[in-house]
């Protein structure tokens, strides 16, 4: 398996050819899932005693398995939060995979860490975090939110042994992503959801004032959102920041989706107050054009995160000599240097290209909202926020949206899924792909 053979050279060329052709597809097939029975019938048993051989395994992937995976970079993939990695970032992902870099410690990955930290610095600067800020690239927003809240709880209990037996408490909003709730479940702490679609400083102040003395002691973080997943709403970070500061509570900002808007001058003002946060996240695998999986997690004071997350062990002592070990800043140890594809693309294209690309998607989202407003049978449910448009078709019920959405996917036209707003089933477009044009949107709207 480890010898370099002729067969492996042929396989090498086939895999590189496939990768490059896949990157160049504009658009790729949108594809669709299959049932386990269909996949069993088509792929059969793939793990065998003797092995299938590389070319046959690759054929199975190309012909059977890949078409059963939806292409999230298709310009008409507007469900959830799509992906739109640059060619440079995807190409570099091949290098990351080929290089066996363990991106955990400075000892093992000084060069990779240096580059990742420069990419994190760009993001920290966009948010107005000071020069001490730093963090780590983790697998996604879910991991980022959890690691930030663990650091927040550590900071709250630091040096206060009387707080240790108390179950922690986090304040967040109804619009926050499910991963905040999941983080509190994993941490075995309580969650208090307050406010309406947009969390404000007043909501947080009122919630804190209403807490009992013991609950006030339990409270260790306010988690707000810069771009809610469903509606794209940016919470009142200025107000929440002031209250958090007055009340000495850690402020975390989940910008997994919307944080990319920091790079867009036209909407930067909406993020004012983010600089007051103690930690924030943004997922480059969403709207910052990096391949999966990549979340930038940044702390204002990374020392606190290090205290919370550093793993201790006799075998690890060699790595603790005052250097920057990425493993210290999140709930992880071994990790791929997953920030490198973003770094490479940033280094290749420069930051202006990123601002332009985010602005372009915003312009398409604005034009989409206009088309919906002018359409006789469609209605915006809320105003267009960031790059999200949520709308209804007059007279449609949940099953109409479901049938339409299924048909679109089955016929390879688009991937748009319904969501709910105040209990009503509606449609939602999330536009993060600079290849999504207003013509693509018009084609989808025409099918409604
Ligand atoms: C606001 C927000 N936070 C967190 C997440 C979770 O991110 P991930 O899926 O990368 O774990 C998402 C995902 O869409 C999100 O939109």
CATH fold call of the largest domain: Aspartate Aminotransferase, domain 2
Helix content: 40-55%
Secondary-structure arrangement, i.e. CATH architecture of the largest domain: 3-Layer(aba) Sandwich
H and E order: HHHHHEHEHEHHEHEEHEHHHEEHEEH
Named once each, the bound ligands are:
pyridoxal-5'-phosphate
Structural class: alpha/beta
Number of strands: 11
Strand arrangement within the widest β-sheet reads: 1-7-6-5-4-2-3
The amount of beta strand, in percent, is 5-15%
Rg from Cα: 23 Å
Give the C-level CATH assignment of the largest domain. Alpha Beta
Q: What is the total domain count?
A: 3
Provide the low-confidence segments as ranges.
Answer: none
End-to-end C-alpha gap? 53 Å
The CATH superfamily of the largest domain turns out to be: Type I PLP-dependent aspartate aminotransferase-like (Major domain)
| Main beta-sheet strand count, sense and barrel state | 7 strands, mixed
| Rough outline | globular
Mean of the pLDDT scores?
A: 97
What does it look like?
This protein is α/β, with parallel strands linked by helices and 448 residues long. The chain folds into 3 domains: 62 residues, no CATH class; 256 residues, Aspartate Aminotransferase, domain 2 (3-Layer(aba) Sandwich); 96 residues, Alpha-Beta Complex (Aspartate Aminotransferase, domain 1), CATH 3.90.1150.170. Helix content is 43%, strand content 12%. The strands form 2 sheets. It has a 7-stranded mixed sheet with strand order 1-7-6-5-4-2-3, sandwiched between helices. A 4-stranded antiparallel sheet has the order 8-9-11-10. α14 runs parallel beside α16. It is globular, with a radius of gyration of 23 Å. The N and C termini lie far apart (53 Å). The model has no long low-confidence stretch (mean pLDDT 97). The structure holds pyridoxal-5'-phosphate.
């Amino acid at each position: 398996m480890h010898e370099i053979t002729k067969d492996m050279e042929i396989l090498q060329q086939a895999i590189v050819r496939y990768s490059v052709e896949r990157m160049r597809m504009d658009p790729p097939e949108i594809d669709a899932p299959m049932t386990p029975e269909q996949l069993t019938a088509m792929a059969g048993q793939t793990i065998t005693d003797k092995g299938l051989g590389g070319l046959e395994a690759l054929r199975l992937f190309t012909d059977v398995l890949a078409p059963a995976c939806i292409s999230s970079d298709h310009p008409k993939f507007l469900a959830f939060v799509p992906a739109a990695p640059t060619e440079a970032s995807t190409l570099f992902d091949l290098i990351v995979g080929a290089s066996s870099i363990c991106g955990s410690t400075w000892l093992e990955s000084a060069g990779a860490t240096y580059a990742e930290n420069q990419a994190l610095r760009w993001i920290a600067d966009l948010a107005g975090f000071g020069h001490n800020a730093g963090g780590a690239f983790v697998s996604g927003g879910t991991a980022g939110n959890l690691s930030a809240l663990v650091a927040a709880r550590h900071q709250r209990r630091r040096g206060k042994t009387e707080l240790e037996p108390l179950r922690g408490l986090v304040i967040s909003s109804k619009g926050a992503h499910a991963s905040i709730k999941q983080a509190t479940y994993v941490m075995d702490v309580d969650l208090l959801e307050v406010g309406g679609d947009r969390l404000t400083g007043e909501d947080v102040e009122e919630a804190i004032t209403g807490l009992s003395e013991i609950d006030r002691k339990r409270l260790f973080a306010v988690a707000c959102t810069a771009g809610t997943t469903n509606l794209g709403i940016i919470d009142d970070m200025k107000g929440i920041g002031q209250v958090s500061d007055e009340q000495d509570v850690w402020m975390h900002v989940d910008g997994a989706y919307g944080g990319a808007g920091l790079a867009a001058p036209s909407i930067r003002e909406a993020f004012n107050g983010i600089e007051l946060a103690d930690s924030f996240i943004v997922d480059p695998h969403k709207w910052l054009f990096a391949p999966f999986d990549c979340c930038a997690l940044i702390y204002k004071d990374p020392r606190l995160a290090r205290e919370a997350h550093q793993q201790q062990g006799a075998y690890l002592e060699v790595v603790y000599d005052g250097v920057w070990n990425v493993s210290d800043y999140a709930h992880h140890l071994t990790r791929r240097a997953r920030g490198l594809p973003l770094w490479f693309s940033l280094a290749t294209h420069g930051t202006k290209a990123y601002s332009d690309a985010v602005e372009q998607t915003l312009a398409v989202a604005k034009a989409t909202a206009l088309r919906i407003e002018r359409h006789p049978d469609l209605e915006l449910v809320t105003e267009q926020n960031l790059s999200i448009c949520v709308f209804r078709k007059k007279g449609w019920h949940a099953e109409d949206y479901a049938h339409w959405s299924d048909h679109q996917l089955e016929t390879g036209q688009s991937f748009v899924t319904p969501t709910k707003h105040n209990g009503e089933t509606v449609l939602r477009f999330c536009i993060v792909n600079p290849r999504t044009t207003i013509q693509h949107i018009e084609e989808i709207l025409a099918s409604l």
